[in-house]
Amino acid sequence: MEKGDTKKSEVSSLQPIKKFIPFVNNFCPRRSLDTSRFYNYFLENGWQPANSIEKSDLIFIYSCGCFGSSEKRTLNTIKAALEKKASHAEIVVTGCLLKIHGDVLNGTYHVIPVEEISSLDNIIAARTKMESIPDANAIYPMRDLISPKDFLMKKFKMDVELSSLFFSKVKSFFFGRTKYRNTWNIKIADGCLGNCSYCAIKFAAGRVKSKDPVAIVQEFKQGVQRGEKTFVLINNDVGSYGQDIGTNFAELMEKIFDIEGRYKIRIIDFNPRWLIRYFERLLPLFKKNKDKIAYLSMPVQSASDKTLRLMRRPYKIDDIKFCFNELKKNIPDLVINTHFIVGFPGETDDDFELTREYAQAFEFGRISIHPYNDRPGTESSKMPDKIPVETMFKRYRKLLQIS
Questions:
Q1: Which domain holds residue 59?
Q2: What is the DSSP string of 243-309?
Q3: How far apart are CA 24 and CA 295, in angstroms?
Q4: pLDDT in tens, 110-151
Q5: Phi and psi of 208, rounded to 5°?
Q6: 120 is a domain residue
Q7: 158 domain residue, yes or no
Q8: For 153-202, how does the pLDDT look when each residue is reduced to its tens digit (9 = 90+)?
Q9: Element housing 219 (H / E)
Q10: In the chain, how many domains are there?
Q11: Quick one: 186 and 126 in the same domain?
């Protein structure tokens, strides 16, 4: 090594370490996994995570716009970053809100669409380019877009009557982000094939773009070789996997279940339409490999066919009931989780009662409940017969008593 090279190395080693702080809607495994890829990118380029905005050289915000509340969280996070950051620090905003309601993002910070995120290379003078960073498999414990104060206020207003549930959700906020700490997460695709009338996420995610099954199997084997015990398949709708590349979710699961090892798979965000379509193939597959399934999470959304039709969910409730009943009959210990939306435009008391009765009658493992929320550009936002907020939350709390 020449003398000049040694001097350059010594000077370089004295340069201060750059600090970054990432924000994401931390209850969203899809975007948390995406942000973990950026986390790895910063680490590869010699940056280190900071514990506060004030001590950061770069504040990275993966925006969320699926609900009005998550849009507000993003904007509040940006506002806090602008108020607290050091004068030299940069703010970078990317993510879903850009495609859902991008007009609200304006100010003295970088706004970068996900498809143009390689421009981040220039902002941080990256030695290792963004395009060379593979999908992450571990989710880091990043900062949530919602502040603890706002979270506590929201949950108190919604769940105050159910004190045990309230404290359970408070606990999940402070400790729930460890949910994916000991999991091996595999992003199998981006996007979906749904056209739900209430969904704004489709504007950001686009049509399904599936990963090569060979690459998925390789990632899975890598996790097994590492000794990982819990695996999570990640996409907006995992059931839509393969529809764009001449395969399907059932074929993928056959390949995965063939991998030897002692592990459990969480199958989340699985639209029931695909369970119905591939049921004759999936039932025996799930039954044979029941010891490898941690749980299935399939969002039913409503038990009223009229409401499902307005939601543009392409199935009927009797078809779901048949599939779920057959799964439980053949695999009694199988855990099936679900989501329901309450207060959808036009939802009558009778429609809601059908949902409540089904939620109570079937042995769901966990039920997530979401009050309906208008989002820009969605079909449902233009629908008549909006449900009053008081009625919506009355229904919400009735379902909470079951869940």
A1: 17-132
A2: TTTT--HHHHHHHHHTS-SS-EEEE-S--HHHHHHTHHHHHHHHHHTGGGEEEEE---B-S-HHHHH
A3: 25
A4: 999 999 999 999 999 999 999 999 999 999 888 889 765 665
A5: -60, 135
A6: yes
A7: no
A8: 555 555 554 444 455 555 555 544 545 678 999 999 999 999 999 999 99
A9: helix 213-226
A10: 2
A11: no
